[in-house]
């Protein structure tokens, strides 16, 4: 019993370091719950018997879980007072850019210029790159 009290107290200090407020802590838990619920739900409806246990390693289920969290974050963002259409377009552009970069870093895509010529890694500044 005493060791459990010590463990919980130590954990609360870790939580204080990770999250700046109780609100952020709750938000993180809700996002994690949304992530798990979407991924495990998709896997539960699959024909594969092992999908339930391994959904985080399956691209389709992980994608659905990721989309669920992204939708939740975007929903919170667009509902904020003062957020304009341009802000949402900027957010979407940044997400697309980040995904493209991750594909390149993972070796699954290459940066190319407008003529299809590969741009070497680390090159920055060509507005015509896609």
Topology diagram in text:
Blueprint: H1 2-18, H2 22-44, H3 51-54, H4 59-78, H5 85-105
Shape: extended
Largest sheet: none
Strand content: under 5%
- How many angstroms does the end-to-end distance come to? 59 Å
What structural category do the secondary elements indicate?
A: mainly alpha
Mean pLDDT: 82
Q: In percent, how helical is the residue content?
A: 55-70%
Low-confidence stretches: none
Q: Number of helical runs?
A: 5
Cα gyration radius (Å): 20 Å
Q: Can you count the beta strands?
A: 0
SSE string, helices as H and strands as E: HHHHH
Description of the structure:
This protein is mostly helical and 130 residues long. 65% of the residues lie in helices and 0% in strands. It has 5 helices and no strands. It has helices at 2-18, 22-44, 51-54, 59-78, 85-105. The longest helix is centred in the first third of the chain and has 23 residues, at 22-44. It starts with a helix and ends in a 25-residue tail after the last helix.
Jot down its keywords.
single chain; 130 residues; mainly alpha; 65% helix; extended
Can you describe this structure in just a few lines?
The protein is mostly helical and 130 residues long. It has helices at 2-18, 22-44, 51-54, 59-78, 85-105. It is 65% helix and 0% strand.
